[in-house]
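Can you give me the bound-state structure? Components:
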Amino acid sequence: MKQADIVVINARVLTLDHQGTRCEAVAIAGNEIIFAGDDASAKALRHQDTRVIDAQGGSVLPGFIESHMHIFSGAAELSQLHLTGTKGFSQLAEKVRAYAQSRRDLKLLIAQGADYTILSKEERVTRHHLDRIVPDRPFMMFSPDHHTAWANTAALEQARMLKFRDVGVGAEIVIGEDGLASGELREGGAIDPVRALGGAGRERLGLETGGEPETSPTAEERSADRETIKRGLTHCARHGITSFHNMDGNFYQLELLAEIDSEGGLPVRARIPFHMKNFMPVSALEKAREMHRLYRSERLRSGFVKLFMDGVIDSGTAVMAAGYADPGMKNGEPLFEAEHFSAIATEADRRGLQIAVHAIGDGAVTRVLDGYESARSANGGRDSRHRIEHVEVVLTEDIKRFARLGVVASMQPPHPPGTMGLPLEPTISLIGENRWADSYAWRSLREAGVRLCFGSDWPVSDINPLRGIHAAVTRKAWKQGVPEQRQSLLETLAGYTRDGAWAEFMEGRKGRIAPGLLADVVVLSDEIEAVDPQAIDTLHPVVTICDGRVTYEA
Ligand SMILES: [Zn+2]
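Here's the bound-state model for the whole set.
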């Protein structure tokens, strides 16, 4: 047998194979795992330069596979102000003023994670509050769900948003008592003009248009963008993540990642889709095929198409089969006509591309399954592993269709209201009590034979998989009598490793700890099976190894 470059000993290794095998040690040579078994045998594989990592009884798992996130926009947000947990005007003012002081260079100051009730339960934020904090420079802050923002007067004036202006369907500039914008902006159409004050927003193109920068970025801009993405990759590695499925994309992101890879190797494996928007003709899929052809290494791949079928529940843009329980909220509109989506699904499937569609309401989920079904009847059954992202509400009859069509449910443990600090309202009232049983229905889907993979949707939620795992294993039903959707620890871990690998056709290369697989491993600070489930979110990675290289050390 080969000699090992790295051995991890004194560990509680969970291999995540289907038999639930556990062992003490792992040995790595080059970028592959060469051994999983007992300490003595692992030690016997050392040579004089072998790095020995003593896990001190901590769990060792396959590196986490984050199945739904946004690397570029997430990375860009890392350098913005974070307001999570901030309460009351004076605390808000203090943080924002300090940030403004430290970032004299910015044309627009941006803060994230401002709770809808950041001032108090009764008082909504207006531009006047924000003017008292930052009077002379444009400032805006986002709600945790990113669907609402509040801007000060300087920002609204510069963006010509103070007076009425058409911002398109589904978006709104909230008007104050004085007939001018109050400062509250709802949805992208209203938010983007202000956001644009901050610069070109290249980090958002993969999400907003799915297209490329209009003018080719200068060498300086490219290098700044690479640095931004690198900070995001470092953020992933520190959280034990060794692979991610990006849920927006364009050639520009692929190029930047390829440049980082050739500079010194990506610290995290990336899969980037072609993002298809509803204004694109079916022939646009040619670009997806080109991405698939050009990027197919084990560290950087494409090969799938991402679409959005609807929006989110809280702003009423999700498509519900029977509308919202709150009569004041009108139903969302599907973003693709049924025939258009079926044509795209059929054509993408025929080209051997995988499809991943954001569908939150049960009405949107139905339309996506219809499209997958028509692709199957046109092209015949194959191992396509098409996915639906979020699936927050699902019709009972569609759960069976998921299983029958082999569709992957890509779910986010941080998302159900009541988990990870999310309030229950307004979401659970909008869904309506009679639909609670089919909401975030992880268990119902799994029991029907559906494969689940887990992710965070970072930067919408905290990327930390240990917080996600904690959320999945401790989830509580919204009331008695509603079926429990909580997951077991092993199911959850599989969702963050093995099943994520399956969802990207890589189960033969990663997602488990076994000889011959890629050396993607995370060492945790404690034994995850031994700690109180309530304390899982206090664990942290101490070492992350990706492709045989240490990418993070505490
Ligand atoms: Zn997303």
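A couple of observations. The longest helix spans residues 219-238. Residues 337 and 368 are 11 Å apart (CA to CA).
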